[in-house]
Amino acid sequence: MKKTLFLAFGLAAAFSSSATLGQDRYRERPPVVVSPDLAAPWVMQLAGPNGRPVVYPRQAAQQRTIYQQREQQPVVRRGIFDRSPVQPVAMRPQPIRSQIEPQFLPQTVAYDSKEKAGTIVIDTNNRFLYLVTGNGQARRYGVGVGKPGFEWAGEHRVTRKAEWPDWTPPSEMIQREAAKGHYLPARMEGGPENPLGARAMYLGSTLYRIHGTNAPWSIGSAVSSGCIRMRNEDVTDLYERVNIGTKVVVM
Fold it and tell me: Lower Cβ count inside 10 Å, N or C end of the chain?
């Protein structure tokens, strides 16, 4: 009888102790560990009203920052997995010399000449055009001249002046360029893309002109078919200083 009571008492105590431990174990719910990227309101509700979600924002933020820095760094290696934009060599714009050398800019220089003031003298060898002003001086401009095989010399008068002139290529030029695979228009309206540029002064009854250009980087070179080309701003300046009938000497 005593053994039975002792056994019953022991079982009751054990059951009571287990219940107490169970209540202690679930008195507070365990913390819910979530990533900062998953800390949305519906995820936070999983912890309940008494929940204590545990997150590690500092460490995660540092990892994201490092990752973003790596993404923003320029890629140096060139390979099949290189995500940096690479422009094909054939499509890269070629550098164009947009400025001319300083000696070809307009300037007043000492110039001893037997020609009267107002005469234009063109030194094709040195690529200079002189507007004689008298008193041993001249206004000098840089010019482009005829390429090899198209050089010429002589004396003419300005017979016509035109602003933003149209261009009608001579038939010889059209045929010559067509043989090279370059096809010229029969006629081109005046404008910034026109090879004659902003102004033109026609010489005698020839096809030669003093004119502007749409290729200012060519000033100082032998590149034309015999015409004397100038920068648009320079030919405009000369145009205002020159009258029809002006003597032009090409050397």
Answer: N
Tell me the CA end-to-end span of the chain in Å, nearest whole number: 146
224-238: average pLDDT = 97
Averaged pLDDT, 149-173: 94
Could you confirm whether 156 is annotated as catalytic? Answer: no
Catalytic member of 138, 227, 238, 242: 227
Number of domains in the chain: 1
If one counts every other C-beta atom within 10 angstroms of the C-beta of residue 228, the result is 24
Determine what percent of the chain is predicted with pLDDT higher than 90: 52
Which residues touch 62 (CB under 8 Å, ≥6 apart)? none
Q: What is the pLDDT of residue 202?
A: 98
The answer to whether position 38 is within a domain reads no
Give CA–CA dist 199/192, Å, rounded: 11
Domain that holds residue 214: 102-250
pTM of structure: 0.61
Choice among 209, 211, 229, 231 that is catalytic = 211
96: pLDDT strictly greater than 80: no
195: domain CATH number?
2.40.440.10
* Confidence (pLDDT) at 186: 83
211: annotated active-site residue: yes
Token digits of residue 180: 């090279």
Q: Do the domain assignments include residue 49?
A: no
